[in-house]
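--- STAGE predict ---
source: upstream dedup step, 1 unique chain passed
mode: sequence only
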Amino acid sequence: MTRVNYTLDRIEQAWNVRRAFFPDQIEFVDPTATLAVSVTGNKCALKCAHCNGRYLQHMVTLNQALKSADNDKSSYLVSGGCDSNGKVPLMDSLEKLEELKKKGPLNLHTGLVEEGEARVLGSLAEVVSFDFPGDDQTIAAVYGLQVGIGQYLDTYRSLVRYTRVVPHICVGLNGGQIRGEEMVLDILRDEAVEAISIIVFRPTAGTVFSNCRPPSPEDVAFFIARARLMFPSTPLYLGCMRPGGRYREKLDLLAIRAGINKIVMPSLAAGVEAGRLEMQVIHSRGCCSL
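--- STAGE serialize ---
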């Protein structure tokens, strides 16, 4: 059996599992009601190989979010650059985060935290979006951190004790290579998991990985299908970070057939495919993890 046929066969298996555990409906998310906030402005100590702080430039500061009277925003994705230990310094802004929480629910990106910090942040968060890298080599190559995957698992377990957590797995994070992502699925199978958000490496100008290629849509779809078969009753999300254009069109089509439940900023082709499969489409405007 060729690689292509093997992938299609796995996707068909995943589609059958999805239909057995979920109704024939899919959620399309246009996250315009969620405001992206950075507690560090555009500063990041790590300057990761895939980002280099570029994505922070599109966020507002915490002070701007507090002063904003934009009634179109009903929730807040609060992130920021990491310090040299891989931690987003949310603890330095607790009073302001308490104020922001009064305006709408918070989705926090924490990075690595300790038990006491998880307890405090868990009391503030509606949900935590937790980036779960694949293996030690990826952590070193992308983040420049000399920590192991075990430390990320410890943080995940701490956070789960105090709030909802949606692990995020970036397929191809290490310069487009798929390395330890499947190991993350193996780890999570033994943990409490209420949903998994799958995102895809996107080459970004001004970064170390700017000239790298993303993994093929077929390989990403194969990963989604594997996640569906391993987590038959767990909602799977295709998050906002993934390449655009024809790549997105192809991936979105395959992702639907591979068992995805929710797609952020779907392509037009995704809507056509959902209609062809006679799926009910639900539309929402908040961050997918909320």
